[in-house]
Amino acid sequence: MSATATTLNDINMKAIALLSNKLGTADTIRFLNQFTTGFGNYTEERKKVFDNMSLNDIVKEIKERRR
Hints:
Elements: H1 8-23, H2 25-33, H3 42-50, H4 55-66
């Protein structure tokens, strides 16, 4: 008797299909996002984006985007 190991990719695909069928697409994505750590350095990226802006500039831009 020999057993064939299922690939991790196959297991992931089956699990996502099961979750999607039971939870729906949006809730499946929300569930899976719990386990992702993201990438990059958020703090360094924010420094680059806002380096030349004062607090007043940032507040002004936020207010303009809300219109």
